[in-house]
């Protein structure tokens, strides 16, 4: 072990003395305007079609060969009043210092918490705001990105599950608090910061950045920016690695997950997360990307010190290969998904899907008998239609369907293995009896923001030109159908949100503006069904009920140097 440490130190020292190609800063996951603009540019054939967009954050200066990742259309020079562009180049491009954009995001909910894929922001009523800024420094293969975030949450009171039901057990048994305390609060975090050593296409380092794995645009099964970033060691590609059979991208992480502190009855311990994503672009099929993600989490107190304890993602996929019926004595939980993205540059479109399981099969026989056990999926399409006679203008159509609700096979297995009524044993997405916090960080799901047992059908139609977009979006969001099936069971009381909204991205001078305004019709909020009184008429089963109505808005501003 001592010799290993000596070799690592020798390599680090040597690497600082050797000439290496430039290392670039990242475009943070969820970066307003720019992240979606890069994906559109790929559909239009303006940037490399070899990048999968399934392993994020992106390194645009490395992958797309742009001079400044925050200025993809090279327009900022036209607007600058001085020669200073926020960058200082050291030596012959051997080093670099850059001021990162100032990002200010605001969110408001009028009645109940709404919204997801918003990073460090939390589910809350009222106003909240987050500000980030920072610097990027590179010297040879070493890069340091300091991009902290400061969050303020008004956190107004609202009607919660306990207010409505009192005696009923809350859904899930997972660290997903409805409200983060009873008062306004402010938080400071490292945000999208990282320290890396990059050699060629591969980077190793320590990061607190948000990750997004898989081809989804609105949701992903394993990694999104729904929760705050968390500290992790990372080994990843910064551009595709080309081989004789095609190109590969990957990321392997080991990190720490913490609880929110607002959910009673959970263990007072942090969790170790080991996860990997691999994307493969076959040489013989243009635009096709195939991939896999796998994630394990375990309480720190249950960990050992062997290779399989720190890298369980390399363990066998079938439980019978582990040797006995009590395979997971270490009390850890696994998620696994397979995905596909197929890009057609000439058609300016793409289709994609992701299929995952929360509980892997005992053996191949078990898989073929019940492949839908603990399964979830995402399927979507993204298409640009050129407007005749209007150069550079398009209509973009996004459609995405996400299904996390359990199938009958999952429900049957849970009942079969449960030792007491209501116990969650196997296969419910993001929560499992062995890791009671669930697949969360600081009280929010790391994967699809709609949460356990939920389903979503989302569509967006927008006019686009360069970095500018203006459009409409619609979503039907079914809340925790697993809890509904197991506890509510009244067909009149499904909790469904119907969302209608306006969305816009705009570029002017150094600024980027993003806007979202949604009207949300909350049908049977918290699974309530309260028939209106019937006067001088015979009551019926489907009496009208009083629904709730919420207004959700986001407004963001980015300043680029």
Q: What is the strand content?
A: 35-45%
The beta-strand count equals 26
Spatial gap, N to C terminus: 46 Å
Radius of gyration: 24 Å
Shape, please?
globular
Q: CATH superfamily membership, which one?
A: Capsule assembly protein Wzi
Under CATH, the topology is which? Porin
Calculate the mean pLDDT score and round it. 89
Do you know the CATH architecture? Answer: Beta Barrel
Helix proportion range:
10-25%
Query: How many separate structural domains?
Result: 1
Question: What is the number of helices?
Answer: 9
What top-tier CATH class fits best? Mainly Beta
Which stretches are poorly predicted, pLDDT < 50 over at least 5 residues?
4-20
Main sheet attributes: strand count, strand direction, barrel closure: 18 strands, antiparallel, barrel
